Amino acid sequence: xxxxxxxxxxxxxxxxxxxxxxxxxxxxxxxxxxxxxxxxxxxxxxxxxxxxxxxxxxxxxxxxxxxxxxxxxxxxxxxxxxxxxxxxxxxxxxxxxxxxxxxxxxxxxxxxxxxxxxxxxxxxxxxxxxxxxxxxxxxxxxxxxxxxxxxxxxxxxxxxxxxxxxxxxxxxxxxxxxxxxxxxxxxxxxxxxxxxxxxxxxxxxxxxxxxxxxxxxxxxxxxxxxxxxxxxxxxxxxxxxxxxxxxxxxxxxxxxxxxxxxxxxxxxxxxxxxxxxxxxxxxxxxxxxxxxxxxxxxxxxxxxxxxxxxxxxxxxxxxxxxxxxxxxxxxxxxxxxxxxxxxxxxxxxxxxxxxxxxxxxxxxxxxxxxxxxxxxxxxxxxxxxxxxxxxxxxxxxxxxxxxxxxxxxxxxxxxxxxxxxxxxxxxxxxxxxxxxxxxxxxxxxxxxxxxxxxxxxxxxxxxxxxxxxxxxxxxxxxxxxxxxxxxxxxxxxxxxxxxxxxxxxxxxxxxxxxxxxxxxxxxxxxxxxxxxxxxxxxxxxxxxxxxxxxxxxxxxxxxxxxxxxxxxxxxxxxxxxxxxxxxxxxxxxxxxxxxxxxxxxxxxxxxxxxxxxxxxxxxxxxxxxxxxxxxxxxxxxxxxxxxxxxxxxxxxxxxxxxxxxxxxxxxxxxxxxxxxxxxxxxxxxxxxxxxxxxxxxxxxxxxxxxxxxxxxxxxxxxxxxxxxxxxxxxxxxxxxxxxxxxxxxxxxxxxxxxxxxxxxxxx
Length: 763
Fold this sequence. Notes:
Strand 38 (736-745) and strand 39 (752-761) form a beta hairpin. The protein folds into 4 domains: 4-13 and 24-51 and 64-91, Alpha-Beta Plaits (2-Layer Sandwich), CATH 3.30.70; 101-183 and 198-335 and 485-608, Rossmann fold (3-Layer(aba) Sandwich), CATH 3.40.50; 339-475, 3-Layer(bba) Sandwich (Glucose Oxidase, domain 1); 612-616 and 657-761, Immunoglobulin-like (Sandwich). The chain contains 23 helices and 39 strands. The N and C termini lie far apart (65 Å). It has 763 residues and is an alpha/beta fold. The strands form 10 sheets. An 8-stranded mixed beta sheet has the order 18-17-24-20-21-22-23-19, with helices on both faces. Residues 1-22 form the signal peptide.
């Protein structure tokens, strides 16, 4: 009878202790080693729910049913970490959210040999989008002519605020929302008076990001789409006939890892084939990265996971979502432009861009007269950045205000100018922004100019007593600019936590992407922007990610038996390394390096038929983690498997991950490295391929055998690549070198299977 007494005493203790500790609580994800995993599939959130008896008492029954983590103080977390059976305790991290033309830019069309024809427009694929939710009434989610739901679909359309089961259809086949992590870190809803923090406790999107990304991946055909007349055309996602399932894991205060894990867990069980995550942060070790942990489980179940590389470029080693079992996507530009020129009083014309509806501006007489230019107006700190409330109405009213990039958002600067009575704005790039040209649908006439033009503008302003400028609307232009090029903001490699794998994997359109938008938001997302449009423009690797998610759906629709690794290989080995003019892809003023573009720019038509693929089994990733020196507990945290790395590496002597790209590091006093790869024929029988190598400077490269012959489809052949660093280069201590390996089809001349080679010298 002592056991009930213990429970009663513990209850009394918690009754008085819990309120005292509440002010110091933080949410943690507690990962234990269960004595026995029930069944073939054990959901991640349930695994994280197997807490000690004390934690189960602290958690309410409702919290346990929702899944997620435990609320602990720092000392409690440290004490629990030392308890038997505890694998890891991780803080519930917050992650940030990272068209009418892009499908055309990528060569997607209905021609007989194209990717859309071969894949049936992605028919049968299900893309799970983890983001801010969805605006189901958007025309991009109409189910007109959509096929029935796939029989494997097990998901739901979850009821919630302004959302019910009728919100879903044959296009938007499922929707869920996850608020445990969000609620733990922000227990109350935003005040009703705070329109900037509007939120729905349902899958409904209050912020637009999720609606935009979901429609980019698989939006249905919408004729006459535009943003107030700009970018007019037919809006379509990459896979127009793929189904979409939405998992709302992001809120006004970010995306918490416990919610992300719960969403991924449900998506896997629901039956999605592709997971698209346009979110992330900075690089962290894989065993601390909830996205890496959740995506490993997805990969084991045959679900391809596509992630954004992050927007922290051009800083080296800033790439996020580095796990080798996910496809990591950087951002590129397109050749569509929205010119808005600035004519100065001295006759000079500066090039700028804007998506302010200049057609309406011109019709209403705007731009016909020059306005006085002002910069650093008012006495408040931050006036040069046009921070809210920093501008003096007496000095800016009726004038064109020059606002420096930085600190606050681009559209927010325009709102600050408008509130102070300014008539127009020039957004001036700083040196760090160079010529980057992400446009906005500004609330007043405005243009953004590059750093070179900014320098000239400020010299002009300082050279005359009354500087003036006039905005000249240029409409929409296509095909005149070199593209693709690397977006300046796109995060770069090398991978900080896993340099033996080249990241990002590929780049895809991520600048000035027009896609679906909620009816409750203005196109700038600003609270006081009362304009409404079914579409708006956004930039970021968040926009690049769903392009590749949709392309992955196309490849999987055409090749449903291919593994996630085989699909990624097809996309990587067929990627372009030249722009539409046949010249090298650029990164600012320089030729783009591998740490910016990975294997290159996605080419969906070629990806449908790559000839050969580098396939990877889930067990291979475990062996790879062993080669990186991960501990038993660290691997268990990621894979939920007991692993003896000594035995694993003994069985897999000279193991190297069968990745489509090659990344080599010569350590101090090391001049030779050998790797192994295996190719599987997915092209034609009786085919022969010959190796062609362009070696990185300072390295000799040999391939054995140099010729591979495949008699059958699905036949696999292995080869070795040996690298020898020259003595001269090693002494000089060059940091990196780049080259590539191509397997060229010599029998029919149809295929070229390209792998980038990155070499580094480290001490």
